[in-house]
């Protein structure tokens, strides 16, 4: 197929759609950058915090590597490398998964829980400062509706 024919088949964004898309991208980048900066000041990365907070909410403070990778949208190998770094810092430990020879359980350590408990108030203040307190209740409701729609598979 020629480049021209492929080009004609594309559904280009109109001006309103392009403005909305660019605004969404700028918003996602700004929020992520600002909250990541605030977490870094606490000695944690966003993925660190995501793993710690997820494990803290799970029964036995445990999750399989595969479940956690899926939740984060990461490959198992990427999360495994990250977990190795977190394990070296004493934030979690790994245990064999008897049902998956390639997998393991990620278990939150006491040090990991203490680190999360120390970081949580500042992280929540960051989320409030950069998002929650800047929006009205109606904005928050609309944001939740939009997030729900965009979270569904296309």
UniProtKB/TrEMBL annotation:
A GO BP entry: response to stress
Residue ranges of every copy of the HTH marR-type domain listed in the record: 17-152
Cross-referenced InterPro entries: HTH_MarR-typ, MarR/SlyA-like, WH-like_DNA-bd_sf, WH_DNA-bd_sf
Pfam families the UniProt entry points to: MarR_2
Keyword Electron transport in record: no
GO molecular function, one term: DNA-binding transcription factor activity
Renumbered residue ranges of the record's region Disordered: 59-79
Source superkingdom: Bacteria
Keywords: DNA-binding
Entries under SUPFAM superfamilies matching the protein: Winged helix' DNA-binding domain
Protein name: DNA-binding transcriptional regulator, MarR family
Organism: Nonomuraea wenchangensis
